[in-house]
User: What shape does this take?
Amino acid sequence: MDIGTLIAGVLTLAILSFLYRDNPFYKFAESLLIGVSIGYILVITFNNTLMALLFEPLFKESDLWLIIPLLLGLLMWGRFHKKTAFLSRISIAVMIGSGAGVAIPAMLKERTLKQMSNTVVSLVNASGMPDFTGIIVILGVISYFYFSREQKGALGKIAKVGTYFLMIFFGTTFGYTVMSRMSTFIGRMEFLLSDFLKLIH
Amino acid sequence: MKHLKSRHWIFLGLFLVIGITMILNVKLNVRVSPYTQKMFDYIDSLPPGSILLISFDHEASSLPEIRPLALAVLRHAFKKDLRLIGVSLLSEGTVIGYRLMQKTAKEYHKVYGKDYVYLGFRPQYVAAILSMGESLKETYPQDYLGNKYDQLNLLKSVKNYNNIDAVISIADGSLTTHWIEYGHGRYGVKILGAVTAAMVTTYDPYLASGQMYAMTGGLRGAAEYEELLKISGGGARGMLAQSSAHLYVIFLIIVGNLSYFITKRKGRK
Assistant: This one.
């Protein structure tokens, strides 16, 4: 068994020991995981972002346009002092402004308009007849989220139908999430039983 | 034994159920879903030499679930002699993606730079996706190993998404949504997803609307993909354990409900 497998196996057992109760082995493994993760992210970000996209092109290839993002980045450090804190707002304003400018039209189009149009189109099936199942689901769910009137009478009944469909959706999502977590555990068990303990091949 | 509480017994039971079923190593028959079939058929239909961009958009914590799925998709692509460009939009997925590509490339005797390249991580995923749509070279002046873009044979004919047949986002979160919104929405590139089971319902509406072309999900998706490829991998091996674990959870739900109603009835008396 190589040293990497041995360390991974021992740390997996240390993490799983939390299922019994909190203990020093778990604390150690947890702290190590956080420390290694942060260190790794820092190195990857520095090499792949600051070095590859900023310092190397700016200082080696003299791409002077990069002085602008460098300055914006440096302004963020102004937050460390009360007198210069306002400078960071310039960088934040650029970041939020450009981010919102890019995100809002895209999200409106892709998440809202396209999804709405697909929902409406799907209400008529291939033979041109209305799809009653779709109509019931949509009316029910939308009624449930209509809060301008008290949900009683006909509106209340339709909203109740919507609640059932919402529950089906939440149930499905929860089921998939359980499946996902089980898969993660199975993956670790496979590692423990095959690579670490050599019980299965 | 006195120290053990009810939750400990539940965990111990799950540990035994999964452990024993894994040691038994019985392979279950897996019925392939239309989702996975569509994804498989698309990759299978691509002519040799087609280029796929594989984006490793996941963290290390989801590796047990993502790994079999990613391996199955990569094996299929290499088996079909497709050319692959690997990227990562989450820093934690960077090395994982590289290792997975390296492992599968070795199995199919693929050459780095000619059959596959790995460009590595770029932060700010929205900016990265948009930037790749304009120029892959501007986004990645060099690959993960430090080679200049122009030195890599595979990349010489690749300017942006126009030269890529599809993007496969291997994800454990909502990053595939950004590929759909910006990659597909703005540049029209085909998006395929290999996602964790927890994310399947999130992407279902995009699949129904055609914004996402195909998707396979979770360990089950990996098992289905392995079935189509006629290979044995982590997905197929985990199916008996997963089915048994689900039965165990259903058993616990029934026991929990029964005990609740019995306690309630006793309380009334």
